[in-house]
Design a protein that fits this description.
This is 3-deoxy-D-manno-oct-2-ulosonic acid (Kdo) hydroxylase. With 298 residues, the protein is an alpha+beta fold. The protein has helices at residues 20-32, 80-104, 175-182, 193-199, 209-223, 225-230, 280-288; strands spanning 6-8, 35-38, 64-67, 72-74, 113-120, 152-159, 167-172, 233-238, 243-247, 253-257, 261-268. The protein has a single domain (6-141, 150-172, 238-288), classed as Jelly Rolls (Sandwich). The chain contains seven helices and eleven strands. The longest helix is centred in the N-terminal third of the chain and has 25 residues, at 80-104. It is globular. The mean pLDDT is 96. Bound molecules: 2-oxoglutaric acid and fe (ii) ion (FE2).
Length: 298
């Protein structure tokens, strides 16, 4: 099947059933590495929530984050009533996106696990950051302190910019090509290092070989300036009031510009996918000729 970068859907509603045809188109596109784009799917704020559209709320981090599993809010300071109001907004986004994914991808059922919600009120353009944390460089997602143990990273994004400003992304080449380019640069883990990171609580859980190689791809890709400059990439503007869904561990992406975004992360086991063979785990295992999720972790 010819892969399209972006597949567009017309829905304006978070709560409506989809036809089998739409569900099929969505899951095939998603697992093929397309961005599912919903130009008319807006996430409205209540009047009393609009005061949060201000970067001054962010404290000590680059984003505000919420964990819908424990209702904990991080990266923000304020009065109890305000924190409660903001938690309510993020919880509503978590609930809406979870329900939406169940309607769109019934195939995943209860395998779809909800993780963090993030609110990003800081303008991306000109924001100071280190090379490895710089999301204006093309990358697939992999996080140094949060190994997934082989699970996928599925993210829902909604641009809630109140001034009609888009979020400017670039989307790179298919994962297979990115992997092929970086394969000669990938190094195996330093013996004992992952155990040390686990023992001292630096990683939340043990960093599997899969997580190690995904982080290698993430870091070496961001540091490869020739690749950043010369690799195939397409710019795309996600308008204010739109939503998009992406496997960010598979789709090469970079964000250049934009302010006020909501993002909800989900995880899903590779075995629960419709096409596990298209996952970064299976592609990496084939390329390295090695199992990357093993029982004898240490
Ligand atoms: O903030 C954005 O628009 C995207 C940043 C990013 O790379 C991500 O959320 O994975
Ligand atoms: Fe990312």
């Amino acid at each position: 099947m010819e892969e399209s970068l972006i597949i567009q859907f017309d829905t304006e509603n978070w709560d409506l059933e989809f036809t089998k045809e739409i569900q099929e188109k969505a899951i095939e596109g998603l697992e093929n590495g397309s961005v599912l784009f919903f130009p008319k799917l807006n996430f409205p704020l209540l009047d009393e929530e609009k005061k949060f559209l201000d970067p001054a709320w962010v404290s000590g981090a680059k984003n505000i984050s919420f964990d819908p599993r424990s209702s904990t809010l991080k990266g923000v300071e304020g009065k109890h009533e305000d924190l409660k109001l903001l938690s309510g907004l993020l919880k509503r986004y978590a609930d809406k996106t979870r329900n939406f994914l169940h309607l769109l991808f019934p195939f995943y059922g209860s395998s779809l696990k909800i993780a963090r919600t993030s609110f990003r009120p800081v303008e991306i353009s000109g924001r100071p950051t280190s090379a490895r944390k710089d999301d204006t460089r093309l990358h697939v997602d992999a996080f140094p302190s949060s190994p997934t143990g082989g699970e996928r990273i599925l993210r829902v994004f909604s641009n809630i910019n109140p001034h009609g400003k888009p979020r400017n992304w670039r989307i790179g080449e298919p994962f297979q090509n990115y992997l092929k380019h970086l394969l000669p640069q990938l190094s195996p883990p330093t013996p004992g290092k992952r155990f040390f990171l686990y023992l001292f609580g630096i990683t939340k859980g043990y960093r599997s070989l899969y997580d190690h190689y995904m982080l290698e791809l993430h870091d070496k890709g961001k540091l490869d300036l020739q690749y950043q400059k010369n690799s195939p990439q397409v710019a795309f503007e996600f308008p204010a009031g739109s939503t998009w869904i992406v496997f960010t561990d598979q789709v090469l992406h970079a964000v250049d510009k934009g302010q006020f975004l909501l993002e909800q992360t989900f995880h899903i086991k590779v075995d629960a996918l419709k096409h596990p063979e298209k996952s970064p785990l299976k592609l990496l295992e084939t390329a390295l000729n090695k199992k990357l999720i093993t029982a004898d972790t240490f």
